[in-house]
Amino acid sequence: MSVTSPLRPADQTSVDRMADPNWWRQAAVYQIYPRSFADANGDGIGDLQGITAKVPYLRELGVDAVWLSPFYPSALADGGYDVDDYRDVDPKIGTLEDFDRMVAALHEAGIKLIADIVPNHSSNRHAWFQEALTAGPGSPERDRYIFRDGRGEHGELPPTDWESVFGGPMWHRVTEPDGQPGQWYLHIFAPEQPDFNWQNRQVREDFLTTLRFWSDRGVDGFRIDVAHGLTKNLEGALPTKAELDARKHATDGFVDGSHPYWDRDEVHEIYAEWRKLFDSYDPPRTAVAEAWVHADRLARYAHPEGLGQAFNFDLLLADFDAASFREVATKGLDEAARSGASSTWVFSNHDVVRHATRYGLPVTEHPHTGKDWLLRGGARSEVDTELGERRARAATLFQLALPGSAYLYQGEELGLHEVGDLPDSARQDPSFYRNPGKEIGRDGCRVPLPWSSQGPSFGFGDGGAHLPQPAWFADYSVQSQDSTAGSTLEMYRAALKLRRELQTEERLHWLVSGHEQVLSFERPGGWVVVTNFGNEPVDLPAGEVLLASSELNEATLPGATTVWLRH
Ligand code: GLC
Ligand code: CA
């Protein structure tokens, strides 16, 4: 593995870190889903003032940056990923002044802020979309989105039979200003999320304005939602859904940029333009792409002349197994070295079943994403919660020792589980409503955090919680784990602190472990990491124990445990 960045000396102060243009390369980034983090005014919805109040918690946790999921005005048709106005704050969760205060408090604590940008689609309440509806077919207003006439004698059939990501058709028919059924618009996601036309120069200019707006307000970086979707080719005869499915590479998409709406080569022209804007700031603004593309094509997004970094979801998708983890780590580091980026490691986010739960699911389940469980919903009794947490902690200590940046999702530091059995009436996710009886959606990882063991909404706020919290949340609360030796929270705190001290060059060296289910590697400076993925204890290698994910017995490393040692 090659060294791709200057050293980050262990004694670097937080002031240096804030000014360092390479701060992102090995950062621990904590994702906040704002409506479920902390509620300052007791209306049941997490808000920006709630985040500001928890900055001391984030500082103590030891994260380098916060990635804030969308906080813009939104009807929440898709949890805020349906944006009404890209340059404002949702009045339900705060104001621009609250935003400024939050940024100031984070920066004061030495924590960067990464804002979530949603460029593929706006919401259907966005002023431009409303103008497009009123202006009618052929108008410049309509050209900012993707409107087409339908097929069939009266245009009554959608332009293609493509299916949206959340289920149902990818086209929605509008009523024209004259009251007649008219054109159709494209929405890769929900109908409330019309896709922009990125060939339109106004769209491009407007996003540059947005990126400047937040950069000027102190935002340090951006997470780019659906970065692989922006450009489309809808000219000529369009393929059917069956034709697209047939051409899809077995597991991970198209390899040649020929898909009409995913991962087209032209998308990188957009990011090259963004990069110029990002680099006009000091330190340059960073960006990380959410791009579910073929592994061979991810480096284009992570290129230094593009977004600079891309999410690598392979660890999230891997079995809890030594060979799989080693393969993913090796591949991820190689890819990062190729693009000049650093790798990213992710186990949980707001779209997948929490990893403490995934790792405790019966083996008949899809082991990685918990997809089957997510599809039908599951009770807590089906999960081996103890095993899941134990493995999750071991996996996390493995992750936090890898070169590159680690993306953590709010609540994972508590070992929190998915709430798989929310009542249907409480659910909010469009993938639940658009797939009746087939999918339960992603609300189970978005339930408001438990801060205390009693009280209304377990300390989330003075009122209720917008998604119901189960009684067992009490056992996972911050209060119950704070200063409790051996708690998951204390393990995260210790690991993040040590990581800052131990992390230097972006390199690792695999060691021979002598066991099929044991992985061992060394980072420069004598930091040795050993994970036992098996069930049986193995001998503990020599060295000073710095941290372990479960209690060690004498000289053995128990199953599903990671230990950090110093040689
Ligand atoms: C991304 C987000 C997801 C959202 C979708 C549409 O995948 O992570 O939450 O539903 O984009 O914006
Ligand atoms: Ca609130």
Give a quick rundown of the structure.
The chain has 567 residues and is of the alpha/beta class. The protein has helices at 14-19, 48-53, 55-61, 96-108, 127-135, 201-216, 241-247, 267-279, 298-302, 314-317, 322-339, 355-358, 371-376, 385-401, 430-433, 478-481, 488-502; strands at residues 28-32, 65-68, 112-117, 147-148, 171-175, 181-186, 221-224, 286-289, 308-310, 344-346, 405-409, 509-510, 518-523, 527-532, 538-539, 544-548, 556-557, 561-566. The protein is built from 17 helices and 18 strands.
What do these coordinates show?
This protein has 567 residues and is an alpha/beta fold. The chain is built from 17 helices and 18 strands. The protein has helices at residues 14-19, 48-53, 55-61, 96-108, 127-135, 201-216, 241-247, 267-279, 298-302, 314-317, 322-339, 355-358, 371-376, 385-401, 430-433, 478-481, 488-502; strands at 28-32, 65-68, 112-117, 147-148, 171-175, 181-186, 221-224, 286-289, 308-310, 344-346, 405-409, 509-510, 518-523, 527-532, 538-539, 544-548, 556-557, 561-566. The protein has an eight-stranded parallel sheet with strand order 9-8-7-3-2-1-11-10. A five-stranded antiparallel sheet has the order 12-13-14-18-16. Strands 4-6-5 form a three-stranded antiparallel sheet, with no helix packed on it. Strand 12 and strand 13 (518-523) form a beta hairpin. The longest helix has 18 residues, at 322-339. 49% of the residues are buried. Residues 1-10 have low confidence and may be disordered. The structure holds alpha-D-glucopyranose and calcium ion (CA). The site of alpha-D-glucopyranose has 9 residues, from loops.
